[in-house]
Write a structure and sequence with these properties.
The complex is a heterodimer of chains A (273) and B (354).
Chain A lengths: L14 H8 L3 E2 L4 E2 L6 E7 L2 E7 L7 H16 L6 E7 L4 H9 L4 H4 L8 H25 L4 H5 L6 E2 L19 E6 L4 E6 H13 L24 H38 L1
Parallel strand pairs in A: 4-5
Antiparallel strand pairs in A: 1-2, 3-4, 6-7, 7-8
Helix pairs in contact in A: 2-3, 5-7, 5-8
Chain B lengths: L1 E3 L2 E3 L2 E5 L12 H16 L9 H5 L2 H10 L6 E4 L15 H8 L6 E3 L8 H15 L3 E4 L16 H13 L3 E5 L16 H8 L4 E5 L6 H10 L3 E4 L6 H4 L1 H15 L4 E2 L9 H10 L4 H7 L5 H15 L4 H7 L4 H6 L16
Helix pairs in contact in B: 5-6, 8-10
Classes of the chains: A alpha+beta (273), B alpha/beta (354).
C-alpha cells in the first residue's frame, strides 16, 4: 500500500531505494524534498546498515527543523525492510552534536535539548498545516483548470475521487502518484466525472491526512487555513491564501538558497587561492 | 531625489542603523554571532563588488553613514530604528543614544525613533518618557526576540507590553515598528512570531504598527493580519534586496503585498548597514513585476506606487512635508557637502545660472 519496492531482506538495499525514501523527507519550512534541495551529501551502504550525511543552508538553521529532518531521514531509511539501522549525520551545524547524538540514540527532542521549551510536535503541526494550505492551492488550481467551479470544489470529499483502474476502491487514492497518472473526480452528486492529473491531488491528500483534517471518505476535502470547510462565497479568498502560503515558503527558500550559496562560496574560497 | 525616467522620487529610507559591533563592545558570544549572522545576510544579498569587509561592517561611523545614505542622493531622509541588545553589547548595539549622535547633527534629514522593553517595568516606562522628553521620538522600534537575563523574548500582546503601548499612545508616539523577520542567530525563530501584532493592532487603533521585514518567513500570517487591521503596515527591509539577485521572487512578494495591503501601507527600508541604499534604491526602483504576476494579481509597480512606497507612505506616518523638505534641501548642510543643491531645485521655475 505504501508503493515501495519490496527489497529482499537478505540483500543490501539499493542506493535508489534509499534515495527514494529520503526524497520523501521534506524541509518542513519549505515543504520541499531534502533530495531536491541538495541537502544530502552522502549515502553509504554497508550490508544492512546505511549512513546518510546531510548539510543545511546555514549553521544556524532552526535546530527544531534540523531535528525533524534528521529524524524523518532515519525513519524513512529504516522503513526499508533491507535496512537494519540508519546512521544520520548532520554536518556543519551549530547543534550538530546534540542532534546527531539524539537521533542516533533515539532520544526525544526534549531529551536531546534539555534547554528547549518543549517538544517539536507543535512546531511540526504548524508547518504541516502551512504545507497543507500551499498544497491545496495546487490541487484546487488543477481542478479549476479542469473546469470545476467553486461550488463543486468546496463540496468534494475523498469518496468523490477515484483512480480509474482502482475498481471502486477509495483507498487507492492517497498512494504516491507519478506525473502521468490521472484521477477521476466525481461531481454534482456523482452525475459526471472529470479526469485530472493525480499528483497535486495526492500531494494534498497526504498532508490533509497528516494534519488529521481528512481521515474518512466523507470528510470535506478542502479547508480554510483554520481547518474549516469552505463557504463557496469565500472560495476566492481562501484560494488566494493558499497562493500566499506558497509565496511565503518559496521566499524563505530564496533566503535559504542565498545563504547556502554565500556559505559555499566562503568555504570554497581558500581552494581558489 | 532619485531620478526615474525623468520623474523625481523622494526617498525616505525607513529603516537604518548606526551600530557598533567592534570586539571591544561585545561582552557575550551572542553579540559576535549576531554580527556574523548580519554579515551573512549582507553578503548573500549584496552585489559582489559592493560587499564590505567584516572590519568595515563592525563599525562604520557617522561620516560614512551620511555619505552612503545621501552622498549620491539615493535617499533624501532616513529613519533610525534602534536595536539595543544590551545583554550582548557593552554599550548596546544600536541604541537611541548612539543614533542620536547623527540624528541631532542633521535633524532635517533624520527621524530618530526610540525603543522600549516591557520587561524593564516601571524603569522602562520612565526611560520611554525620558526618550520622549529628550528627543521627542515619534516612534519606537521593538525587538521581541531580545534576550534579557533568563528571558529569550516577549510578546506584543503581553499585559506588560500593553502598558507600554498605552504610554506611547498617551505621549503621542504613534509609530510602532516591530522586527518580525528572518531568524537571526542566536535568537529563537519563534520569538519573531507575527501573531502578537494582531491583538496589539486591534487594541490600539490610534497607533500604527509597522511590521519590519514583512514577517518573512511568516509572510502569509503577516498579510492575513494586515488585510484585517488597517493600522498594520509592512516594512520592506530584507524583501527589498531580493530585487537585486532574486528578481522573480521580488516580483512575487511585492505582488502579494500590493494585493493584500494595497499601495498605501508598504514602506521602503534598506536596513542599512545590512544593505546600502546607494545601490539598493536603484535596484528596487528599476525592478519590474513579471507579466505573469501582473496578470495574476492585477497589481502594478508603477510610478505612483513607487512614489508612495519609497517615500510618501513614510512621510504620511511621520508628518513629513515632502515639498517643504525639497525646498529645505536645496541648501542644507548635506546638500552643500555633497553638492546636491541642483538636485532639489529641478522643479523650480527655470532660473538663469547664478
Amino acid at each position: 500500500m505504501t508503493g515501495t519496492e519490496s527489497d529482499g531482506s537478505m540483500s543490501a538495499p539499493s542506493r535508489t531505494a534509499v534515495r527514494d525514501r529520503l526524497d520523501r523527507v521534506t524541509d518542513p519550512e519549505l515543504d520541499r524534498s531534502i533530495i531536491e534541495l541538495e541537502y544530502v551529501d552522502r549515502i553509504e551502504i554497508d550490508g544492512d546498515r546505511v549512513a546518510v550525511e546531510f548539510t543545511l543552508p546555514t549553521a544556524w538553521c532552526s535546530p527544531a527543523f534540523a531535528w525533524m529532518m534528521a529524524v524523518d531521514a532515519r525513519d524513512e531509511v529504516e522503513s526499508l525492510s533491507a535496512v537494519e539501522a540508519a546512521r544520520i549525520t548532520l554536518r556543519e551545524h551549530m547543534h550538530e552534536a546534540e542532534i546527531n547524538r539524539g537521533v542516533n540514540e533515539e532520544l526525544s527532542f526534549a531529551e536531546a535539548f534539555p534547554d528547549a521549551d518543549g517538544d517539536v510536535a507543535a512546531v511540526r503541526a504548524e508547518l504541516d498545516e502551512k504545507a497543507r494550505v500551499a498544497r491545496q492551492y495546487d490541487a484546487v488550481e488543477t481542478l479549476l483548470e479542469a473546469g470545476l467551479d467553486a461550488e463543486a470544489i468546496v463540496a468534494l470529499r475523498p469518496r468523490d475521487l477515484k483512480r480509474p483502474e482502482a475498481d471502486g476502491d477509495d483507498a487507492a487514492v492517497g498512494a504516491t502518484a507519478d506525473a502521468t497518472e490521472a484521477v477521476a473526480v466525481y461531481v454534482r452528486d456523482r452525475s459526471f466525472a472529470v479526469s485530472v492529473p493525480a499528483e497535486p491531488i495526492e500531494r494534498y491528500l497526504e498532508k490533509a491526512r497528516e494534519t488529521d483534517l481528512v481521515s474518512g471518505p466523507d470528510d470535506v476535502l478542502f479547508r480554510t487555513p483554520e481547518g474549516e470547510p469552505i463557504d463557496a462565497n469565500s472560495f476566492d479568498l481562501v484560494h488566494q491564501r493558499g497562493r500566499l502560503a506558497q509565496v511565503n515558503m518559496s521566499s524563505q527558500g530564496g533566503i535559504c538558497d542565498g545563504l547556502r550559496e554565500a556559505r559555499e562560496e566562503r568555504l570554497e574560497e581558500p581552494a581558489d587561492d | 531625489m532619485y531620478q526615474h525616467n525623468g520623474e523625481e522620487i523622494f526617498v525616505i529610507d525607513a529603516h537604518v542603523h548606526l551600530w557598533d559591533a567592534t570586539t571591544e563592545n561585545i561582552d557575550h558570544d551572542g553579540g559576535e554571532e549576531f554580527i556574523q549572522c548580519f554579515y551573512d545576510y549582507h553578503t548573500t544579498f549584496t552585489p559582489e563588488e559592493r560587499e564590505w569587509s567584516m572590519e568595515e561592517y563592525r563599525k562604520y561611523g557617522p561620516d560614512r553613514m551620511v555619505e552612503d545614505l545621501f552622498g549620491n542622493a539615493a535617499a533624501d531622509m532616513a529613519i533610525f530604528q534602534p536595536t539595543y541588545l544590551s545583554d550582548f553589547y557593552v554599550e548596546g548595539f544600536n541604541t537611541t543614544e548612539q543614533n542620536a549622535e547623527l540624528a541631532t547633527e542633521y535633524p532635517e534629514r533624520f527621524v530618530l525613533n526610540g525603543s522600549f522593553d516591557p520587561r524593564d517595568g516601571d524603569e522602562g516606562l520612565e526611560y520611554l518618557e525620558d526618550l520622549h522628553e529628550t528627543y521627542d521620538i515619534p516612534g519606537v522600534k521593538l525587538y521581541t526576540a531580545e534576550w534579557r537575563g533568563e528571558s529569550k523574548g516577549w510578546r506584543l500582546d503581553d499585559e506588560e507590553a500593553f502598558e507600554f503601548l498605552e504610554k506611547c499612545s498617551e505621549l503621542g508616539i504613534e509609530n510602532i515598528h516591530a522586527h518580525k523577520g528572518p531568524t537571526i542567530r542566536p535568537l529563537n525563530r519563534d520569538a519573531f512570531d507575527v501573531a502578537d501584532v494582531d491583538d496589539a493592532a486591534s487594541s490600539f487603533p490610534e497607533l500604527n504598527f509597522i511590521v519590519e521585514h514583512v514577517g518573512l518567513p511568516r509572510l502569509d500570517d503577516f498579510c492575513w493580519i494586515a488585510a484585517q487591521e488597517n493600522n498594520v503596515y509592512g516594512g520592506l527591509a530584507v524583501a527589498a534586496p531580493f530585487a537585486q539577485n532574486r528578481p522573480g521572487k521580488f516580483s512575487e512578494i511585492m505582488s502579494e503585498l500590493l494585493w493584500w495591503l494595497g499601495e498605501d501601507r508598504i514602506l521602503f527600508g534598506s536596513d542599512y548597514a545590512l544593505w546600502n541604499p546607494d545601490w539598493l534604491v536603484e535596484e528596487v526602483l528599476e525592478a519590474e513585476l513579471t507579466q505573469e504576476h501582473r496578470m495574476e494579481y492585477g497589481v502594478e509597480w508603477d510610478l505612483e506606487t513607487k512614489k508612495k512606497v519609497m517615500g510618501e507612505n513614510a512621510a504620511e506616518l511621520y508628518d513629513v512635508d515632502i515639498e517643504e523638505k525639497r525646498r529645505q534641501f536645496q541648501d542644507d548642510e548635506i546638500s552643500l557637502e555633497f553638492d546636491l543643491g541642483d538636485h532639489y531645485a529641478s522643479e523650480e521655475p527655470a532660473a538663469a545660472d547664478d
